[in-house]
Amino acid sequence: MIEAATETLRTEGYAGTSARTIAKAAGVNSALVFYHFGGVDPLLLAALDRSSEQRMTAYREIVAEAKSLEELVEVATGIYRADIEGGHITLFSELVGASIARPELREEIVKRAEPWIDFVEQTLERVIGGSPLAKLFPPRDLAYAAITFYLGVNLFTHLDADRTRTEALFNLAGRVAPRAKLLTMRLPRRQAGRQ
Questions:
Q1: Whole-angstrom distance, CA of residue 178 vs CA of residue 162
Q2: What does the alpha-carbon distance between residue 47 and residue 154 come to, in Å, rounded to a whole number?
Q3: Of 192, 190, 52, which Cα lies nearest the Cα of 109?
């Protein structure tokens, strides 16, 4: 049922997703949605959880390879493309949109976004921590900005049919990253008691 809920949310959107449409896709009775999950929203959150868990596992390995801001931008571009092709971000976007009309979803969505903010913050701390860039833009603030940007660019992709505008943003980041090299060099630590 989780796979059917995932596919239904991706293809039909939140408005077109119901116990009936999910059950039909899964080939089961719609009563099972309520029996096993307590309703459609808890099932959709379970689908988001599974997608997030799979993505986090895969992306931790990929991101661990990035040692510089340039490499991080390259990895982020690949992740963006994979998320678009795989439809992973659609799950999150649809539920964020649904939370406007269904405030009870907001807390659940925020709870599920927090590990991603932490993940990005830890990655930025590893790559730029101790640098002038990190002093200008603390990794926690940059992580929140990155997640906000990522959600926005993925939503905009649905309006940008040929993806030229959204691809241009990643190309811009790729051109800027090498120029920021001086800002990402770690500052030498001052020795205590040095005169």
A1: 27
A2: 19
A3: 52
Q: What is the pLDDT of residue 32?
A: 95
Question: What burial class does residue 49 get, using C-beta atoms within 10 Å of its C-beta: 0-12 exposed, 13-18 middle, 19+ buried?
Answer: middle
Place of tokens 């590893």: 126
Assess contact for 163 and 55: CB atoms under 8 A.
no
Q: 1-28: buried (b, 16+ CB within 10 Å) or exposed (e) per residue?
A: bbebbbbbbbeeebeebebebbbebbee
pLDDT of 130: 86
Residue 187 token pair? 């500052």
Q: Where are the alpha helices (DSSP H) in the chain?
A: 2-12, 19-26, 31-37, 40-64, 69-86, 88-101, 104-128, 132-136, 139-157, 164-179
Nearest-10 crossing angle of helices 88-101, 104-128: 140
Q: What is the pLDDT of residues 55-114, one digit of tens each?
A: 999 999 999 999 988 899 899 989 888 888 887 888 888 999 999 999 999 999 999 999
10 Å Cβ neighbour count for 127?
20
What average pLDDT does the segment 131-150 reach?
Answer: 89
Q: Are 55 and 89 in contact (CB under 8 A)?
A: no
**Residues 151/89, Cβ–Cβ less than 8 Å:** yes
The three-class DSSP label of residue 161 is: coil
